[in-house]
TrEMBL record:
The lineage of its organism: Bacteria, Bacillati, Bacillota, Clostridia, Halanaerobiales. Its cofactor is a metal cation. This is Homoserine dehydrogenase. It comes from the Bacteria. Residues 352-426 form the ACT domain. Keywords: Amino-acid biosynthesis, Metal-binding, Methionine biosynthesis, NAD, NADP, Oxidoreductase, Sodium, Threonine biosynthesis. The active site is at K207 (proton donor).
Length: 433
């Protein structure tokens, strides 16, 4: 049956909303030619209609009344770009119940409520797409759901937060101050409305939860993901990492080993020659290992108005194609199994440790003795010259269970010669690449 124009409504004309509107308005001829159908941006909801925007949109399509989008019988696809849980989630529910397809960039909502929303979409015979929620413009969700679907995914390891990658890049390459680098990332539109979501690792954890659900077929409760942000990463550790030929990145790591899932987000040292080490600024990259395809890496802009807009508009076009072909619901929710999650103590990794010790004979023997008794063997060690607060002792431990390292550190902390355990950073990546 010949379809009328497909009408779109945007919720939230902020950083991403402006990118989406720009692409839709400026590229409409090209999009319509590709679609052989007209896509029309019919309404845009935002709270403040007087604020100056990044983009000029016709005044008559702006509204501050949610019902003009959500209850508008003309609108086929609702694009949620408000962020946060509510009212974004309620608006998505209203749209799905009104049998409107939904596209969202909202990782928090998808990580926390994605499976219920996907069920609701299915019940209502509509699609819910969320490519922009992970890796911004990188087509990672579509790749996992479609191009890699023949695989049993064994591992996903990625830099999935543009803000923290921008901050760590500036701190590493320019010795920048944390707060200044964060302010720049905010100015560039990379950060969340509340940037603690970026800095403390929640944003990366939401993304890992979404990726893991698709890759491993099992829902992962966001609260079960081991999480450390970047606020404790110091210039000292960045400098010692350089000496050891490592770089520090905030990694999201998901693995399936013997049917058990490992899911963690934390600052990680990776070798300088590792492919993820060259991923800088707001770029993201996701490394995937599938049983059949082997290793792949997806790389691109993980944040920002236009790159994220690119993923959102691609979802819109995909849904429009489904509408034209009466083909919604092609790919159902991928969480078909319940798999056990490993605790962090069961994780096996290499470790970088930085201790502050008293300059006294026997201290090295005491520390290495405790490590050895706990099955931790030392790969390399640097002892720096004396400071007014003792001597920094930097160790890299071979692969071992996290439980062993933690027990050893508790014992080391009790040594009179040890003033402080300053840092523990996991080290990944050497063996596989
Ligand atoms: N920025 C990025 O690079 C990326 C963002 N995302 C995700 O995209 C979504 C949007 O992010 P972003 O564009 O950066 O966020 P912004 O804060 O820039 O934009 C959100 C917009 O929605 C408006 N808004 C807030 N509450 C309401 C409401 N109740 N009704 C109508 N409008 C409202 C805001 O107005 P006001 O400013 O007045 O509050 C603002 O204009 C988030 O889920 C984010 O996580 C995903 C990938 C990348
Ligand atoms: N705040 C996020 C935006 C994209 O998802 C980030 O910095 O990656
Ligand atoms: Na993406």
């Amino acid at each position: 049956m010949e379809k009328r124009t497909i009408k779109l409504g945007i919720l939230g004309l902020g950083t991403v909303g402006s990118g989406v509107a720009k692409i839709l308005l400026e590229t409409s001829k090209n999009i319509n030619q590709k679609m052989k159908k007209k896509l029309e941006l019919a309404k845009i909801l935002d709270k403040d209609l007087t604020r100056e925007r990044e983009i000029e949109v016709p005044a008559e399509i702006m509204t501050d009344k949610p019902e003009e989008v959500l209850e508008n019988p003309e609108i086929d696809i609702v694009i949620e770009l408000i962020g946060g849980v509510n009212p974004a989630k309620d608006f998505m529910i209203r749209a799905l119940k009104a049998k409107k397809h939904v596209v969202t960039a909202n990782k928090e909502v998808m990580a926390k409520y994605g499976s219920d929303l996907l069920d609701l979409a299915e019940e209502n015979g509509v699609d819910l797409y969320f490519e922009a929620s992970v890796g911004g413009g990188i087509p990672i969700i579509r790749s996992l759901k479609e191009s890699l679907t023949a695989n049993k995914v064994e591992e996903i390891m990625g830099i999935v937060n543009g803000t923290t990658n921008y901050i760590l890049t500036k701190m590493t390459q320019e010795g920048a101050d944390f707060a200044d680098a964060l302010a720049e990332a905010q100015d560039l539109g990379y950060a969340e409305a509340d940037p603690t979501a970026d800095v403390d690792g929640y944003d990366a954890a939401y993304k890992l939860s979404i990726l893991s659900a698709i890759a491993f077929g099992s829902r992962i409760d966001i609260n079960d993901i081991y999480l450390e942000g970047i606020s404790k990463v110091t210039q000292k550790d960045i400098t010692y990492a350089k000496e050891l030929n490592y770089v520090i990145k905030l990694l999201a790591i998901g693995k399936e080993v013997d049917g058990k899932i490992e899911a963690r987000v934390h600052p990680t040292m990776i070798p300088n020659n590792h492919p993820l080490a060259a991923v800088n600024d707001s770029f993201n990259a996701v490394f995937v290992k599938g049983h059949a395809v082997g290793e792949l890496m997806y790389y691109g802009r993980g944040a920002g108005s236009m790159p994220t807009g690119s993923a959102v508009v691609a979802d819109v076009i995909d849904i429009a194609r489904n509408i034209i072909n009466d083909a919604n619901g092609r790919i159902a929710c991928s969480c078909y199994e319940e798999k056990e999650l490993k605790s962090i103590n069961e994780v096996v990794s290499k470790y970088y440790l930085r201790l502050q010790v008293i300059d006294r004979p026997g201290v090295l023997a005491a520390v290495s003795g405790i490590l050895g008794n706990n099955g931790v063997s030392i790969e390399s060690m640097i002892q720096k010259s004396k400071t007014e607060n003792g001597v920094p002792l930097i160790l890299v431990a071979h692969q071992v269970n996290e439980g062993n390292i933690q027990t050893a550190l508790n014992e080391i902390d009790n040594l009179a010669e040890v003033k402080e355990i300053s840092s523990l950073i996991r080290v990944e990546g050497e063996e596989c690449y």
